[in-house]
Amino acid sequence: MPELPEVETVRRGLANLIVGKVVSATDHDTPKSFPNTETDVRSFLIGANVTAVRRRAKVLMIDLSTNYSLVVHLKMTGQLVYVGGDERFGAGHPNDSLVNALPDKSTRVTLSFADESQLFFNDQRKFGWVKLLPTAEIPRLPFMLKVGPEPLAETFTVDMFAERFQRRGRTNIKAAILDQSVVAGVGNIYADESLWGAKIHPKRLVATITPEEFEALYTDLREVMNLSIEKGGSSNRNYVNAEGKRGSYMDFARVFRREGLPCPRCGTTIEKLRVAGRGTHICPHCQTL
DNA sequence: CACTTGACCTGTCCGC
DNA sequence: TGCGGACAGGTCAAGT
Predict the structure, then answer these.
(1) Measured between alpha carbons, how far is A99 from A5 in angstroms, rounded to an integer?
(2) Distance B3 C1' – A148 CA (angstroms)
(3) Beta carbons of A147 and A56 less than 8 angstroms apart
(4) Each residue's pLDDT tens digit, A128-183
(5) Which residues of A are catalytically annotated?
């Protein structure tokens, strides 16, 4: 799934839907999806009140009144879908069919709240997880120690952006922008979209990128991510928000998954290639080596 | 260190 | 219709 705009969309939804609710029960399939001890679950999850829902990079944190948090990574196919107690089997709910189908085959973790509502963590490919950890320990997780700055933060400047790349001078710009220790939250969709916006070929070595190009990339990355959040994220395959609804950014995508279609800037046919081990979409006229 | 590749999983799509 | 292979929004652990 889920890159920064999708995770942020889920965060905003959950912040409205579950803050203040009391956890009454939990269930899961494999320990891989929910690697927590029974003792911790009983002591710090059951009976806890949800106090906040936060995000850092592509990681979600559901804070609890016990000073523990549920830390969630959706990886490629994870979903967090909330179903209100009164919505189940209710007629006229916008997501009737999806909501009433849960839990389903991909459901890995279920959280039940005291008011009968539920939160489902679904994950087709089982890469994601939900970890119960002391809130104060989260910043000391290896991932949190190495992850780069939030690209949409007001304090994040173009100079900081360009500086972050200097450590990765000998690789290509696509691998570097996907590196979470350079900048947080960029994944395959927004890497391709922003490189197209800045007219930079994804195979260009970082060391050859000019200050003007870094500035264009910085501006475009932020624009494209802000637009995507506004559109509720990208539903390329199975991403949905906390209410089970798809996002519409893919309707606005300029190159991602648009191979064979004309470039919206010059009309040249968009091509798909492989860079940094990932499917990569470019306009061969706008983005040259 | 910086960099690349394979592994983790299931489902879907495409060519034979 | 069936089957094999490639591929899919992300990160890690290994290898060079």
Answers:
(1) 23
(2) 18
(3) yes
(4) 999 999 999 999 999 999 999 999 999 999 999 999 999 999 999 999 999 999 99
(5) 2-3, 58, 278
- Cα separation of A289 and A284, whole Å? 9
Report CA-CA distances (Å) from A121 to A49, A141, A157, A209, A242.
Answer: 18, 22, 35, 40, 10
Q: pLDDT band at A87, cuts 50/70/90?
A: confident
Chain A residues 72 to 131 with C-beta below 7 Å from nucleic strand C: 73, 75-77, 125, 127
**Nearest nucleotide to A205 by CA–C1' distance?**
B3
The whole-number Å distance from A125's CA to C5's C1' is 18
Give the pTM: 0.96
